[in-house]
Fold this protein.
Amino acid sequence: MNLLIGGGAKLKLKIMLRAQALLLPACATVLCAANFSGAAAFDYAKAAVGFGPRPAGSEPDKKLQAYIAEHSRVPGAQVTEDSFIAKTPRGDVPMKNIIVKFPGSSGRAIAITGHFDTKYFPGRHFVGANDGGSSTGLLIELAHVLAGEKRTDDVYVVFFDGEEAFGEWTGTDSVYGSRHLAEKWRMDGTLRKLKALINVDMIGDKSLNILQDTNSDPNLRRLVWKAAADLGYQAYFTNQSEPMDDDHMPFARLGVPVLDIIDFDYPPWHKDDDTLDKIGPRSLEIAGTVVVEAIHRLERQ
């Protein structure tokens, strides 16, 4: 299409478009990957927080599982519940991952993951708005965005239960859901189809600073950081680097290229003031839009 207009009208249109650009999200002035709604993601996170403290195996955790499954049943999605019994310092605990699959045609797969449980703090009211809530909100909204797209690769949106340790973090008291699914996918052949797994955690902080996890695949990290830069979000994806142990690591140990997208510079981490007022729609939209663009780029590989 070619729009031909006169000189005076052209100047007025240029002024109008420039004014409108100032009102648009940063990605709209460079490249917009998706209609990812930070407001919708925030509402889903708010709903998750509304269930209260939700350690794995608790009644609020089970209610949130049902909520996630219900709100992820979008057109084109195959929703499955992955139930298992985890051996923990508190005994056997029933847990359940929620897996939302969008089938493609290539025979390859991409997984976007995050956790919904909160840390077990007896006698405290820890609701994990950022640590558990933000990833839940982002992933539910991601499922809604993916529902409107045609897929090349299978895309899995995975909600992990049991990321948090019941006591001190150890190799056997942590990431229960991802350890279970990594082994399950190893056994059923899904694992070898994965070209990438991107985990999101604590990405709702109003002062968003995503660090570079040194345990992540460098090529995948470069792809995502380039996507963020192309979207105009380079200020939020920093050069600060730290090794992170998170839900991506069971898959990394089995040879899957992984990336942890996490803002660990968050003073309320594991404190009772990790509440809804600390997270914002803008941060969720930035992280979510970058994830969708990363999926598109991975599908073109």
